[in-house]
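Worked example 2:
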Amino acid sequence: MPILEVTEFAGMANAGGHVVPTGSLPALGTQFMTFSGTATSFAAFGSSTTFIRLHTDASCRVNVDTQPTATNLGIRLAANQTEYLGVRRGGVLSVIASV
């Protein structure tokens, strides 16, 4: 089954006083979720999470909100794509397979 990896960060990295669009290590945690043609939700992000890194090994669509359901209108990720997103603390990510 395909897997979506979600890594949580408290913020973006800083290099020489400049914000760098990548997570500031150490990460707060990582969740791995298998997904299919039915929307699946992850556990809520931690209270310090404001930035996430997504990596998928198969095409999918994601939605982030307080009670999301991923649909074909969500953000599309291609197979083997990595994406960084700013999120609200306590938010939830939902994923569904896409073609």
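DSSP finds no helices and ten strands in the chain. The longest strand covers residues 3-9.
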